[in-house]
Amino acid sequence: MTLAVLLSGQGGQHPRMFDLTADWPAAAPVFTVAERVLGQDPRDFVRAPGADLHDNRTGQILCCVAALAGWTLVEAARPARVIVAGYSIGDLAAWGCAGRFDAEAILRLAAARAEAMDAASGEGFALAGIRGLRLAEIETIAGRHGCHLAIRNAADSAVVGGPRGALDAVCSAAQAAGAQRAVILSVRTPSHTPLLRAASGRFEAALAAERLRRPPPGAPRLISGLDGAPVFDGKAGLSKLARQISETIDWAACLVACREYGCDTVLELGPGHALATMAREAIPEARIHALEEFRSASGAADWINGR
């Protein structure tokens, strides 16, 4: 079996996002570290009435906590061959799953990444998801309204970033052109667009200040969330990790990489199941689930092992 582990981006955070891992013993150290970075136990925070789960800093930390806690379950299942790839903030979490940074460094970096992005963009920005038009047409509509192509999801699916008002116009124009879906997403930052170029430089400095670890024996193959290429050179990989904040990311290429690597099983870790849904279209022959689709951690581990 060859397992592809996909790490979620922002947007799917919800009060029950830690239900499967909250009491999983191996995940306890992740939650302990997260409490120091977030300021409170994330398991309690997500369930607190009125908690803002979509604040940029909070959301990025929560997504990384979910990924790293879920990864402890994958480690317990001991799959023989693994590839990891992350979507947006999930790209940072993938470096933790691959053993390049410890959990505390990943969560510190998630906070630093969000702070750099907020400082660069300010208020009034967002992302929109569009499906059912060719990428070239989506990019043309976005450019016409002063917005930018942020993520290539598939040949007919993309995310666009820019000012909130302009994105409303982009969605209306896309629907008029025949898009199946055109909606504003629960993200308040124009991630992966030139509007955040200053954030890329600031985050690259934060990455350089952390100690990069040598991957342990048997570590999964790490795929860059920017372009789907394997990361062999740590320095070059970190540059991509910083650049993806302000450059269009090619998630479709990441899914192609998973398929070419021979993945026959795909598991999404993190809030939601958007990546699992995209993977089902891109790799139809594979067994695919999001962790949140299971009723228990032990059931997920059994599924990973084909039982």
TrEMBL record:
<dbReference type="InterPro" id="IPR001227">
    <property type="entry name" value="Ac_transferase_dom_sf"/>
</dbReference>
<dbReference type="InterPro" id="IPR050858">
    <property type="entry name" value="Mal-CoA-ACP_Trans/PKS_FabD"/>
</dbReference>
<dbReference type="InterPro" id="IPR016035">
    <property type="entry name" value="Acyl_Trfase/lysoPLipase"/>
</dbReference>
<protein>
    <submittedName>
        <fullName>Malonyl CoA-acyl carrier protein transacylase</fullName>
    </submittedName>
</protein>
<dbReference type="InterPro" id="IPR014043">
    <property type="entry name" value="Acyl_transferase_dom"/>
</dbReference>
<feature type="domain" description="Malonyl-CoA:ACP transacylase (MAT)">
    <location>
        <begin position="6"/>
        <end position="303"/>
    </location>
</feature>
<dbReference type="InterPro" id="IPR016036">
    <property type="entry name" value="Malonyl_transacylase_ACP-bd"/>
</dbReference>
